[in-house]
Write a structure and sequence with these properties.
Number of strands: 7
Helix content: 25-40%
Distance between the termini: 51 Å
Radius of gyration: 24 Å
Strand order of the largest sheet: 2-1-4-3
Oligomer: single chain
Number of domains: 1
Number of helices: 4
Shape: elongated
Largest sheet: 4 strands, antiparallel
Order of helices and strands: EEEEHEEHEHH
Amino acid sequence: METEAIRIGVVMRRTPLASRWQPFQWQPVEIVGEAGSPHAPRRLHDDPANAGNAETLWLFNDLSFNLCTSEAEGYFLNISAPEPCWFIMWRIEEIDGEEIAVPKTVTLSYNEAARQMDSGERVDTLPASDDVIAWLTAFTREHYHPEPKRKHKKPSFEGGEGVERMARAEEKAHGG
């Protein structure tokens, strides 16, 4: 089950660096909820007097977001954290001859963000608002049901069927 998709936007900031290896640093700075109709990335702030050396803000509002029951555990891990947050996965792309950090996905699932990072993607965080945390908490309470912990009975070292099974498994493993 999924919630209805919500259109959101992400504001990305490009900050110049005094480094010959990396001229700029990109990072998300704001989630814009209920974004209007989608449009191409839009430069929000640029200083023409410092072209190329000024901080620049870009708005990307062509993203959609929804909650899925299959990610309920990841939502639980997020709301259990000291500071619940949005996870923004972004990539550098060339737009009109300029390298821009383009947000590709936005999630509230800790597990989904971890999978993205494990596959080599760039993922940054932004704090989630109280309204978003309340919405996420309500969804998680309704759909997250942790599996009960099972006690694993250890075989007795005084003999018995469990020890015999272990011995047979050892024999097979060592060619016996």
